[in-house]
Amino acid sequence: MELKRQPRNPWKTRVHDHVPPALCEAVAHLCEEFTAAYLLDCLVLHKGIQCRLPKPAQAASCPRLSQDERSDRYGMLLSLWAGGCTTAIDEGLFLDAAHRRPREYDALRQRFRRKPLCLATHKG
Description:
Elements: H1 8-16, H2 21-27, H3 36-50, H4 67-82, H5 91-100, H6 102-112
């Protein structure tokens, strides 16, 4: 699936089906227009943060995905999400998006980061 070749409105509709309003609010100050590609990157970042994926290492340590590879992976994720697998995440795509959009990653992490799990000890 090539993002650039898809009609703009169907992609926006399909992507917007999965984007919570709070996500748009969290990055609104960073973007003038919410394109499908931008929203997909932010959505992948959001889902990765929600799944508690670790903070990405330095950009130099991870190779970037090509546009074709990103498009294929986005298409797969959209299909999974539309099919009900709403927590599916592509870790390679998450790392790539975090390196390409560090400001968005930071804004989303600040807004949606979950507190560390604390195991209560029971004395009995």
